[in-house]
Amino acid sequence: MKLETELIPLDRALLAEATDGFLPDRVIDFHAHVMEARFYAADTVNPAFAGRTIDLARYTAAMGLLLGPRLVGDFVFPYPARRTDRVGVNDWMIADCRASGTSQRHWLAALVAPQDDPGLASEWLRDRRCCGLKPYHLYAHDGDTRQTDIEAWAPEWMWRCCHEHEALLILHLVKDASSADPANREALLRLSTRYPGCKVVLAHVGRSFNHRTARGLKDLASRPNIVVDTSAVTECEGIKLAVDVLGIDRVIYGSDYPISHVRGRCVTAGDSFQWIYGEEMNNPRMTLVGIESLLSHRQAAEDLGLGRAEIEKLFHGNAQALLR
Fold it and tell me: For the chain, what percent of residues have pLDDT higher than 90?
């Protein structure tokens, strides 16, 4: 899997198909990652990204390939990997934001784990640039965490902290059924009700890489502080389900950079999903994940009959309202 830094003619043609006459003039990317290699154990990072430094300037330049001058803001957080110096990478990210000196507005979320100091998390949230926390299932324990309960990796102190600071909590759900899993549903409903000031973001449409799991979102629609981002979703069905169930005001575009810049896509396969990469398939006609995702957004919008005001909410207005 290779991180692409240039577009080939196929990419440019499909990108035009995805964006021309569709994307609004202003876009906020609501889900992207930065990283600094010295804070990561190399053997726990995706080989495509290992050893890399992705600061805000590099991220902005890379997303410029897809969005150009439309990119006016972003919500970024460190790339999650099992053995990470979270304090180091969070402080580096915040310092990089302070030094960026760009007109583009950056919002940040700190990478956190259950064993981390809640006081330090609160300290990060007091910085006006940091408005969220990003836990991840890999920090629950050392074994296989793909079937782990939410509170094992996003314990109650994180919800309380975000509630007190009116901050965002970005969750990458696990378990096979994702948002449709009964234990996940119970925890999300209970904790979002107990901590209404916590703005809960279910990444990847509640990790609906299998679009059928997005049906579970209907059971969460009663909680107004739960929203979804669409990062790295490459099937329009999941996006359509999210808009149908939650309403356009609670669905927000994200790229999932740097995943957006590898050649591939993710497809529903039975009750699971399968990532397909161009290099592994020896298929030079595959385009970038980020372009596949934009094509899916356009197809979803056309199928749903979304108007210009609704498309502007999806790509800019909803993010701006939350990040404000």
Answer: 91
User: How many C-beta atoms lie closer than 10 Å to residue 271's C-beta?
Assistant: 10
Q: Flag whether pLDDT at 76 surpasses 70.
A: yes
Is residue 90, in this structure, part of any structural domain at all? yes
pTM as predicted: 0.97
Return the DSSP state at 232.
Answer: T
Residue 300 belongs to some domain of the structure:
yes
Domain contains 287: yes
Cβ-contact 324, 28 below 8 angstroms:
no
The verdict on residue 315 lying in a domain is yes
pLDDT, residue 43, reads: 85
Q: Tell me the pLDDT tens digit for each residue of 201-211.
A: 999 999 999 99
The region that residue 204 occupies, defined by phi over 0 for left and psi between -120 and 50 for alpha, beta otherwise, is left
Distance CA 201, CA 217 (A): 12
| Euclidean distance between CA atoms 301 and 305, whole angstroms | 6
Is residue 244 predicted with pLDDT exceeding 90? yes
Average pLDDT estimate for 287-291: 98
Helices within the chain (DSSP H only):
9-19, 56-67, 86-100, 118-126, 150-153, 156-165, 182-194, 203-207, 236-246, 278-281, 289-304, 308-312, 318-323
- In this structure, are strands 251-252 and 168-171 parallel, antiparallel, or unpaired? unpaired
Q: Are 94 and 124 in contact (CB under 8 A)?
A: yes
